[in-house]
Amino acid sequence: MNRREFIRRIAVSTVFVGIAMTGAYEFVEKFAQVSPTQNSEATVLSQSSQSSGQVSSPAGYAYVGQVTDIGASSSAYFTHPKYGNSILIKFNGQWKAFVATCTHAPCTVQFTGSSIYCPCHDGQFDPNNGAVTRGPPPRPLPEFSVLVQNGSIFVLTT
Hints:
This protein is α+β, with helices and mostly antiparallel strands. 23% of the residues lie in helices and 32% in strands. It has 3 helices and 12 strands, in the order H-E-H-E-H-E-E-E-E-E-E-E-E-E-E. The chain has helices at residues 3-31, 48-51, 67-70, and strands at residues 43-44, 61-66, 75-80, 84-91, 94-99, 110-111, 116-118, 123-125, 132-134, 143-144, 146-149, 152-156. Strands 1-3-4-5-10 form a 5-stranded mixed β-sheet, with no helix packed on it. Strands 6-7-8-9 form a 4-stranded antiparallel β-sheet, with no helix packed on it. Strand 7 (116-118) and strand 8 (123-125) form a beta hairpin.
């Protein structure tokens, strides 16, 4: 094999590897997301009481659900009006709410009882403040202020 043939083979191989990597990345983006319903421990809140007018939200807050809706799991998924897929947890006696999408890849995080875990790349976040405690996530999970009034749970909308 001469030098010209060697360079041509390297160039062709590089193109095929690039195509394969692009396809693999798109596959992961599309199919590797873990939906909240795959986490059997967590509740998915419908937030239907708000839409039916049964609960009035304080100014700047959105209704999430009732404390009684959470159950023994100490966590529930809800849709934040501005940020979408979010998780509500009760940790050390306090209610916390975070964006439920990992800051590393578009995977839904799960509350394990002692940490917030991303199953896609083994990332972990501190449930006290959303700070990264392990793995590849580059940033903490965005957190929302939580307000509990008369058994109703609300999160800050901004």
